[in-house]
Amino acid sequence: MNAPNGSSMFGSALLVAILVNSILVQDLPALARDRLPPELAALSDEELGRIARMSPLPPLAPDPTNRVADDENAARLGHRLFFDTRLSPKEISCATCHEPARTFTDGKKLAQGIGTTRRNTPTVLDAARRRWTGWDGKFDSLWSQALAPIENPAEMGGDRTTLVRVVRDDVELRKLYELVFGPFPAALCASANDPLHSPTPRDAALQSLIDRTTADLLKAFGAYQRKLISGRAPIDRFVEELRSKQPVTTTAKIDALTPAARRGLAIFVSQGGCYQCHRGANFTDEEFHALGLAGANGRVPDDPARLAAVDFVQTNPFNAAGSFSDAPNAPKAAMVRGLRRFPELFGQFRTPSLRGVARTKPYMHDGRMADLSAVATFYDTLEGASPTGHHGELVLMPLGLGAEGRSDLVAFLEALTPDESKLGVWEVDPIAPSVRRSASTLGR
Ligand code: HEC
Ligand code: HEC
């Protein structure tokens, strides 16, 4: 590209500044100052704008890489598979770690399947909203993520051939598969010499058919998990009232946040600096940051995290740019191809969403913080963080909030969690285990 001369550069910079400014002004929903509770009265317009953007949650963006992302039968198939213990020789299903009654987490420090993994189990609620999935963003879509736990020897210890066989041999699962994807590939059907008899070795054509059928099934897992969306939380009622143009009739929605939570909110959007990364209605910038959390040796961070994830996602045959993607030229694919390795990526993790956070302890990628007050203490003091990081950012500074500020921050984080409610139809095991057993023998 030619370097622009000085004057046109000045001209375009000015234009950009004017444009950005007018977009920001439009984008900034006005919060009526006369409705503000006293705890927020001292905030600037910019800080109030950060609050205004915390709600409502936008509708789910489409996933063009998965042509069945919003197909109901695909979601039903994924729902059955998510709870299916036959995908693992040790009868571990997705729901073993992502337990519905625990907001789709397991309450453990590190996830435990056949073995112990290096990471804490995140919730799958709202996972469909993520730009990258996994703590280090190793996956560029929700559907491509599902294969890893199935085949990881420390998680389910299964394999894709078994996945395909379970669906082929289960009358109901196969019916759902065929409704969505068409006839089950004839070459994979049972015969005297069952092509799905053993996971290895096989010829390339057969393997590629198994991979293609696997990709279909992964897309069903994806369609299912798009149904798992977090409900309205106190913060939504609060922001709705602040944004409302109607006359105030009741303080119920303002009271959805206790005075402590409102003080915590003020910290969050101002001196606490939390909004810099945990921003918008998802409370995340969908980006990666190194907080300088000490490594296993107690000193420098030692998990390459995002640095290794970039290599992984670019070489993953199931990525958005690959031959199993339904939109290999969509923006997501370009994003994957455009990723670059920078040493700064070492130790960076994705900013997690904070919706539902009160129910997903313990915290951080390795579950090292037992509760929200430990998290608040960390950000307040940065104790245990390596100060300069390992290529670390210098975004974080000790806050000096003290005990009261920390507990206000915790009260605010709790208000990002939906009220306890009954599990919906998509959130429970679709069939009782006894029914599952007889249904599966039907297909054998
Ligand atoms: C042994 C416990 C375990 C099992 C079984 C398991 N997961 Fe997970 N899940 C995890 C852990 C740990 C992570 C984080 C992994 C990482 O980031 O390195 C995770 C991450 C995820 C994520 C990404 C969430 C996010 O916010 O980034 C999704 C989606 C997910 N799992 C879905 C599934 C599905 C679908 C299955 C079944 C096919 C499954 N999991 C089986 C433990 C488990
Ligand atoms: C520089 C970006 C950044 C800033 C600023 C920041 N966070 Fe975070 N936050 C992250 C990242 C990245 C993680 C995940 C780190 C990890 O797992 O190693 C995280 C993790 C968390 C978690 C744990 C979530 C979970 O599910 O385990 C909470 C709670 C949290 N942050 C709250 C806050 C609060 C409160 C503030 C302000 C005091 C704040 N964060 C400031 C980036 C940031």
Describe the structure.
This protein has 444 residues and is mostly helical. It has 2 domains: 35-57 and 232-256 and 258-305 and 346-414, Orthogonal Bundle (Cytochrome Bc1 Complex, Chain D, domain 2); 72-229 and 422-442, Orthogonal Bundle (Cytochrome Bc1 Complex, Chain D, domain 2), CATH 1.10.760. The protein has helices at residues 6-27, 45-52, 72-82, 94-97, 142-145, 147-151, 160-169, 171-181, 204-225, 234-243, 259-269, 306-315, 331-337, 372-381, 402-414, 433-442; strands at 288-289, 349-350. A two-stranded antiparallel sheet has the order 1-2. The longest helix is centred in the first third of the chain and has 22 residues, at 6-27. It is globular, with a radius of gyration of 24 Å. Residues 82, 92, 94, 96-98, 111-113, 117, 119, 121-122, 124, 127, 130, 133-136, 142, 145-146, 149-150, 155-156, 221, 225 line the site of one heme C (HEC).
Summarize, please.
38% of the residues lie in helices and 1% in strands. With 444 residues, it is mainly α.
Helix and strand layout, with pairings?
Elements: H1 6-27, H2 45-52, H3 72-82, H4 94-97, H5 142-145, H6 147-151, H7 160-169, H8 171-181, H9 204-225, H10 234-243, H11 259-269, E1 288-289, H12 306-315, H13 331-337, E2 349-350, H14 372-381, H15 402-414, H16 433-442
Bound molecules: heme C (2 copies).
Residues 135, 272-274, 276-278, 289, 291, 293, 349, 351-352, 354, 357, 360, 363-365, 372, 375, 379, 395, 409, 413 line the site of one heme C.
